[in-house]
Specification:
The chain contains ten helices and twelve strands. Bound molecules: adenosine-5'-triphosphate.
Length: 313
């Protein structure tokens, strides 16, 4: 058997086609029902044997990513080592293309990629069910980054059911904002908005978030027009309250012919569904000319989750 000396894994960003948020629980978390969708905007990580665990980050937003044990990729390494005791030390190199704190779960993606890379590097032999369990312990979006595709997430997003849908490719335009939003702050803003609307009274909001059957049948039909109309995000009003400029971005994309628009997760990235690859190209060019965001990217989905792209021996 040849020893593996370096493993490179590619891992996608996620969008939430639906994000339904229940009330704040006693432990501070919110129950969610979400429809995750993996898109072709990838981080890449490489794992190599080393004398001590470490991480180096380059690329988009690298200066805002911790290069120590707080990095989610190293937390994933520690969680995997707990299951594979005695596994050797490892150095992780991350090349970021997924913007940081943008509502695209880039940190979770790197954690998922680290699990896949180290399982291969260490010849750990763990299958996807075991990796999914470890992923759920590392963070709520990590399991989905392993799975990819389109999937319904429940609980904190870690209990996943793949969505059965035709092999339609959707064409997205992502508008990256000049600024970031912290996920806990967006949830806190949602709690405040809901408390104000309910005027302190309980019971005005569903205790249990529910899956949008309209979105699921749109996905089963493979009709991008129907999917565009069914996109929804309970966190959007909260994100807009903290980042009002996003209203202009969303409105511009819709005026320019997007089939649907929404804030991705906790934001501030805005995502637009286009009718075709050509329409996405036009929309991306017009949006970037409209001066309503920092930069624009195109991506298609669904794409598979974290996968080994090379293993050097
Ligand atoms: P969420 O998954 O909560 O929606 P997000 O997609 O908005 O988050 P991330 O890019 O995952 O945002 O970053 C969230 C925070 O995690 C950042 O403040 C960042 O410092 C920290 N972080 C830790 N490790 C990483 C990593 N490998 N890549 C990006 N951010 C990381």
């Amino acid at each position: 058997m040849k020893i593996v000396t370096a493993v490179t894994v590619r891992v996608p960003a996620k969008l939430n086609l639906q994000l339904a948020v229940g009330p704040r629980r006693a432990d501070g978390y919110h129950d969610l029902v979400t429809v995750f969708h993996a898109v072709s905007l990838f981080d890449e990580i490489t794992a190599k044997p080393a004398s001590r665990d470490g991480v180096a980050v380059s690329g988009e937003g690298a200066d805002r990513v911790p290069a120590d044990r707080d990095n989610l990729a190293l937390r994933a390494v520690a969680a995997l080592r707990a299951v594979l005791p005695g596994a050797p030390k490892v150095h992780i190199t991350i090349t970021k293309r997924i913007p940081v704190a943008a509502g695209l779960a880039g940190g979770s993606a790197d954690a998922a990629a680290a699990l896949v890379a180290c399982n291969e590097l260490w010849d750990g032999g763990l299958g996807q069910p075991q990796l999914l369990e470890i992923a759920a312990r590392v963070g709520s979006d990590v399991a989905f980054a392993l799975l990819g595709g389109t999937a319904v997430g429940r609980g904190r997003g870690e209990r996943l059911t793949p969505a059965l849908a035709p092999a339609t490719q959707y064409h997205w335009v992502l508008a990256f904002a000049d600024g970031q939003l912290s996920t806990p702050e967006v949830y806190a803003a949602l709690d405040r908005l809901r408390a104000a609307r309910a005027d302190g009274a309980a019971g005005l909001f569903p205790a249990v978030p529910t899956l949008d059957t309209g979105l699921m049948s749109a996905l089963r039909s493979g009709d991008a027009r129907l999917v565009g109309r069914a996109l929804s995000n309970d966190l959007q009003p909260a994100a807009l309250s903290l980042f009002p400029a996003l209203r202009k971005t969303l409105a511009a994309g819709l005026e320019l012919g997007a089939l649907g628009a929404l804030v991705s997760g906790s934001g501030p990235t805005c995502v637009f569904l286009a009718a075709s690859a050509d329409r996405a190209l036009d929309l991306a060019a017009s949006l970037s000319g409209a001066g309503v965001c920092r930069s624009v990217a195109r991506a298609s989905g669904p794409v598979p989750g974290a996968a080994v792209v090379s293993a050097a021996r």
